[in-house]
Fold each of these.
Amino acid sequence: MVADRARETVEAVKPAVSTATKAAGKAVNAGAYATGRQIKRASGMFSAFKEEYDKARKDDN
């Protein structure tokens, strides 16, 4: 009796869980993509800073 009720509840919730799982997966992928894009931008900014720093350092000598 209790097992039957539990099985019914699980079956009733499965579609919502599946939808939520897919949405969470999409959100994680979007976040990972945005993080990677920001890291790429930051490394580009660091490279530009390092080049300017090296130029200034060579000019001082």
Amino acid sequence: MDPIAIVYYLAVCAALTVYSPRIKSTGLRMGIGAGVGMVAAGALPYLKTFAGF
């Protein structure tokens, strides 16, 4: 798994969750976003293989 892709998705998702108003704590929102980014980056190679790319 490409570590640059993981860091990229982690950073993008964490940055996007800062603007989510439903969770009051910025740190918690960033943590959730980082987790989502890591899962997305981890799943990307499998999805690319499944799609034939």
